[in-house]
Structure to design on (276 residues):
């Protein structure tokens, strides 16, 4: 892998990780377009490059992270409740992922799965937006605030996150929809999705680096790995800031149309011989 290829992968990862459009699906296609041959090292790198996006959220939501740290040490009750909710949100993925991670990687990491997931996710977004409009619940702060989130709501988001184990579905999409379905406001659902990603993405990164770290260093090298991670951090900062501001005014519909358009592009690629 060249430095340029790693920068492109980092750019794609950072821009798509927290948007409800699936970073995994975009990375699978980007790797193919860059001519990178699939391997355990490359698959692990596509996970470990998330560390840049993780650090971006720590940077942007440092005040909230500090509250949680204070809560762990018994100095901030609100921070401790947030830690509790995040752990409850992570629990379903930890349990289900332990049993299904390998079968999913072996059988679902392909272009056809991404195509179907993009299309279904896009349609789901548009239907959800229309349903919310009929209910008159389309504004950013309609619903429960993050500080008032219950254990049940956290678990609802957690189980929705498990659906995103299927490539192309999008962890961000499932956790945002999970929060909205559970009754959170758009603002709360988005922030909880970002914060839950700190735990979920960190766990996946640590697991893959522990298992394939030596392979990544040997096959990819420290230079490209670090370059991609820095680019992932920078592009994630830009994407998160943009999305938070965009959703305050416009909602999720744009991402639904984007996913459907991406699925159509994917269909054309498959019909022209794409094999990922």
């Amino acid at each position: 892998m060249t430095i340029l290829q790693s920068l492109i992968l980092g750019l794609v990862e950072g821009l798509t990780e927290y948007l409800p459009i699936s970073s995994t699906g975009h990375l699978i296609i980007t790797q193919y377009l860059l001519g990178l041959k699939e391997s355990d090292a490359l698959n692990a790198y596509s996970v470990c490059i998330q560390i840049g996006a993780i650090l971006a959220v720590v940077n942007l939501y440092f005040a909230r992270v500090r509250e949680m740290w204070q809560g762990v040490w018994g100095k901030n009750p609100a921070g401790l409740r947030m830690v509790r909710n995040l752990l409850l949100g992570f629990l379903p993925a930890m349990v289900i992922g332990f049993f299904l991670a390998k079968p999913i990687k072996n059988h679902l990491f392909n272009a056809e799965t991404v195509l179907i997931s993009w299309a279904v996710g896009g349609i789901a977004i548009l239907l959800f937006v229309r349903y919310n409009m009929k209910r008159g619940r389309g504004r950013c702060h309609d619903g429960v605030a993050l500080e008032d989130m219950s254990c049940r709501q956290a678990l609802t988001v957690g189980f929705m996150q498990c659906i995103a184990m299927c490539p192309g579905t999008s962890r961000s999409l499932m956790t945002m929809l999970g929060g909205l379905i559970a009754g959170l406001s758009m603002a709360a659902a988005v922030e909880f999705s970002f914060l839950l990603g700190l735990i979920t993405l960190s766990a996946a990164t640590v697991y893959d680096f522990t298992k394939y770290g030596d392979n990544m260093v040997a096959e990819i090298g420290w230079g490209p790995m670090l370059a991609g991670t820095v680019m992932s951090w920078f592009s994630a900062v830009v994407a998160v800031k943009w999305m938070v501001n965009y959703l305050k005014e416009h909602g999720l519909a744009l991402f639904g149309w984007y996913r459907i358009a991406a699925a159509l592009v994917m269909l054309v690629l498959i019909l022209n011989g794409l094999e990922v």
In short: Residues 92 and 125 are 23 Å apart (CA to CA). The chain is about 80% helix and 0% strand.
